[in-house]
Design brief:
Order of helices and strands: HEEEHEEHEEEEEHE
Strand content: 35-45%
Strand order of the largest sheet: 2-1-6-7-8-9-10
Radius of gyration: 16 Å
Number of strands: 11
Structural class: alpha+beta
Number of helices: 4
Distance between the termini: 45 Å
Amino acid sequence: MLGGTKIQTCNWAVIMAALTMLLAEPCHGHVDTVIEVGDNGELSGLPPEYMPASVLIEYGRGMQLARKVLKLTVSLGDLQVSLPQCLTRAFELGEGQQLQFAASWYHDQSTLPPYLAVQFPTETHEFGVAGHVILLNLDSLEIIQVVRRRAVDSTLTYERLSADSFCQEDERRNNSPDSR
């Protein structure tokens, strides 16, 4: 069928297959590069075209907010974005967990652009890390998608979530990437 629905379904299948491979653990063909965060928020592990790179993370304080990210600002080269709080506050970190970062710029970009994966881990298993992942386009810092990784029967399942479902239109509009 040449209608839009069939094509969207096909694209969705390709994107999910790519995500499964790209975000999976080392037993699969592609492994993301772990991006380290220095004490000053400097990101290391990205290629020179994305440098300088840094993050500013503000975690919640107190019993109720201790596992929430209140503010997350990512800077790559000339671009900077503060992710909408409606999105970052939606994901609770697991006990003793911190945000994790990984990236890929060396994969086949016909289905997925170069990305930075901002990982909100909830629990670690021998077969992978469950939680939520926000994929940001490395070239524009726009949100590509949000993925929930859940542990089911000794494997991780991936569910695509709409970033729009977490935020009102005005909250999304106020957090678009800016040039520095």
